[in-house]
Amino acid sequence: MGFRSALFASRYDAATRFAERTELGRRRAALLAGLSGEVIDVGAGTGANLPHFPPSCMVTAVEPDPHMRRRLEAKVGTAVAPVKIADGSAEALPAEDGTVDAVVFTLVLCTVPDQAAALAEARRVLKPGGRLLFLEHVRGTGRHAKMQDLLRPLWSFAAQGCQINRDTVAALKAAGFTASIEDQFTIGPDWVPANPLLMGTATTPD
Ligand SMILES: C[S@@+](CC[C@H](N)C(=O)[O-])C[C@H]1O[C@@H](n2cnc3c(N)ncnc32)[C@H](O)[C@@H]1O
Q1: pLDDT, tens only, 106-141
Q2: Which domain holds residue 118?
Q3: Ligand 1: does its nearest atom lie under 6 Å from the Cβ of 57?
Q4: Nearest residue by C-alpha to atom 19 in ligand 1
Q5: Which of 83, 112, 184, 188 could be stapled to 59 by a disulfide with Cβ–Cβ 3.0 to 4.6 Å?
Q6: How far is the CA of 11 from the centre of ligand 1 (A)?
Q7: Cβ(63) to ligand 1 under 6 A?
Q8: How does DSSP classify residue 24?
C-alpha cells in the first residue's frame, strides 16, 4: 500500500500532463474563476488546482496521502491565493459547521471510499448559500457503463481506489444537493473508460 501510493504520487503529474494541457487546465480555471472567501480543496493531490484559485480565496488544501501532500507543499508557490495545507480527509474536513464558502472536488469523488459520507461532510461545513464545485469523471450510459462495471476492479487497483463507474450526480442528489451541470466533455476518444467528465456547481436549500 505504501509503495503503491508512493508510486502513484510520483507518476501522477506525468500521467495527467497531456490531459491537463489539452482540457483539464482550462476547465479548472473556468470552474474556480468566480470563487472568493473560505474554500476547501478536498483531496488536493499534487496541487493542480492551486494556480487557478483567485486571490480573493483563502484556500485550505486537504490531502490525506503523505506522498501527494509532499508534492502539494512543493507547489504552494504556484498559487496566487493564500493556501494552507492540511492532513485530513473528505470524511473529516478541518472546518467548523457552516463556515466555508465553497468546497471543491476535482477528480476526487471517484476515489473517496464513501461518497455519501464525503458529501454529508461537505454539507456540514458549507455556509448557507455555499457551493460545492465539482469536476469529475462519472458513469457513462449503455455499453460504456457496462464496460466501466467490468473494468472497475482492475482500474481501482491501478489507480489507487478510483471507481470509474460512479453515478456522482445521483450521489449529489441523494445527499440533498441540487446539481447544476455546466459542462460535459471527454478527454481523448469517447470510449476511454474515464469518460465522460462533468463539471458544475451544487447547492443545498439550507
Ligand atoms: C485522482 S487524485 C485527484 C487530485 C486532485 N484533486 C486533482 O484534481 O488533480 C485523487 C486524490 O484524492 C485523494 N483522496 C483519496 N481518498 C480521499 C479521502 N477519503 N479524502 C480526501 N481525499 C482523498 C487522493 O489521495 C488523491 O490525491
Answers
A1: 999 999 999 999 999 999 999 999 999 999 999 999
A2: 2-203
A3: no
A4: 112
A5: 83
A6: 14
A7: yes
A8: I
